[in-house]
Amino acid sequence: MKNNFRLLNGIPASAGIAIGKAVLLDRRKIDKFPRIRIPERLVEEEIRRFENAVESSYDQVKKAKEKLEEQDVIKEHSFILETHLMMLKDPVFTGRVKDLIKMQLINAEWALKIALMEIEESFERIGDEYIKSRAADTSFVGDRILRNLTGKEVGHFHIPENTIIVAHDLSPADTAMLNKERVLGFVTDIGGLTSHTAIIARSLEIPAVVGLETASSTISPGALLILDGITGTVIVNPSENQVEDYRHRAESYLTFELKIKEKAKEPAVTLDGHHVNVEGNLEFKEEVHSVLDHGAEGIGLYRTEFIYLNRDDIPSEEDHFEAYRTVVEAVTPYNTIIRTLDLGGDKFYSVMGNLQQELNPAMGLRAIRFCLKEVNIFKSQLRGILRASYYGKASIMFPMISGFEELDRAKEILEEVKHELRQQDIGFDENIKVGIMIEIPSAAIISDILAKEVDFFSIGTNDLIQYAIAIDRRNEYVDYLYEPLHPAVLRLIKYTIDAAHKEGIPVGMCGEMAGRSIYTPILLGLGIDSLSTNALAIPHVKNIARRINFQRCREITRHLLDMRTANEVREFMNNEVKSSPELCNVLETDQDL
Ligand code: PEP
Ligand code: MG
After folding, report:
1. Out of 196, 294, 320, 540, which one is annotated catalytic?
2. Is the domain of 525 the same as that of 552?
């Protein structure tokens, strides 16, 4: 019998395989609403109507938040709904809507839509993934108020068993209301890896594919779906053979996941006794327990710029201190590497209004460059970090160092801050270690000089690759050139590691390359001391490390450095892997090189 299956490709946001029936959630924006001019005498009444809708929305989100908090696994993500609650209480936002009603004499729906458009336009000017996903918060909140104003139903829907949710986008509130027993997976039109849908799906360990663009408008309700959250593939109306094939894949995936998770908390020691420290990357302090549960032996990168986003004031020293202390206390006896902010350029922050739109933000006033210009902002963060170091084990890391002078100035400011703290009798770890990210080729090339000045390096491959091969990491047209195995990248990594080891300092890696277990043999062979990655990848990286022979990796990687292309490297590695049957199996289950 002929079968009309359809293949859709999106972003694999949460690993796993699900086979189930599509349930469509209509969470698209409400575009049809009344636009009415009102007489002046009705202004107060209209404002009251808006206030009531905001109040109902607040109650609904609060209830959703409580529900989320009841579910242990995703408890830590209730902060996302806290953001929605804050927005509903934000006088600047609600005040703008009321002003529009008053000044333009229009109904609440219309005024709300204008206010939301103003916010969305300001978000759109910014290319950053993270800020884009925060724009989704605005849209969820706006949609909720609009539904309350127009009387359209907001919440409850019946979910049958074996459901795969198909939605344009999914709010955390929607997710909280879903029955975990029944929902096997998520599929959405929009969203990226850092979207909230992706965060929640990973937390719940529910397979998800996002960024499918047209899923919600082309999949019929009730259609049978196969969702492959490992590759980002969705098959609509699969054949019986495909279903059978994916049932097997799902089974072996689950068995494999369970098996490697059992050992997640054990150290990663190679067959010949070499230990590599596997750590976690952190964006929000709330994620720290999940990262530790997945076996992180410390935090290799705490991206502190997230403290600056989603707010309309500059974080105070107390805000910094409170966040870092929470994390440091949870992670000690392991270490937490706190990276000073990597803000500016495309990670735009509105309160710092003096940041101009730059023509080439990736190469602009970013990270340490911004901090050295805005010394007071930098000092307040450094005070927060140093104070937190009193409560456990912490290190400081400067991002985007391009040369000696920058590092020297950053260290000088750090010394000034330490001096001030001593004078004020405020405790901090006098032996706190200071390191830098190696993510600009100039820093890698003078890593022998820089290694004399710091206690550790951490290689940021996301930027190192972008700058070394001259490709914008956000530009889909040059995406094919984004190549971790490019011989130039491998040589930069090797040169940096050797320079560091010559000075007796350790080198970690915290870019995405560190979390792809397929690269683990190469990275170990190049001599990396630690790998830091997202929670879910930690058990995988440890698993591979335990199956390889460190000395063999060293021998292999010596050859890689002479190869001409990434494909030659890949082919060579594939052949090597094939001669090691166990490793071959594991890598195949993990992902393709
Ligand atoms: C990197 O560049 O590899 C890195 C870890 O930093 P970010 O992704 O935050 O730029
Ligand atoms: Mg970087």
Report:
1. 196
2. yes
